Amino acid sequence: MIRVSNLNKAFNGKSVLRDISVTFEPGKTNLIIGRSGSGKTVLLKSIVGLHDIDDGEVWYDDVLFNRLDFTGKKEIRKEMGMLFQGSALFDSLTVEQNVRFPLDMFTEKSYEEKRDRVDFCLKRVNILNANNLLPSELSGGMKKRVAIARAIALNPKYLFCDEPNSGLDPLTAILIDDLIKEITEEYSMTTIVNTHDMNSVMKIGEKIIFLSDGVICWEGNNKEILSSDNKTLNDFVFANALARQLRTTLSGNLPGN
Amino acid sequence: MLRFLTQLGSYFLLLKKVFSLPEKPSVYYKQTMHEMVFLGLNSVGIITIISFFMGAVITLQTAYNTENPIYPTYLIGLGCRDSILLEFSSTITALILAGKVGSNIASEIGTMRVTEQIDALEIMGVNSASYLILPKIIATLLFNPVLTLISISVGIFGGWIAGTSAGVITSQDYVYGIQYAFIPYYVTYAIIKTLFFAFIITSVSAFQGYNVEGGSLEVGRASTKAVVFSSVLILLFNVILTQLLLS
Question: Looking at the domain assignment, is residue A228 inside a domain?
Answer without folding.
Answer: no
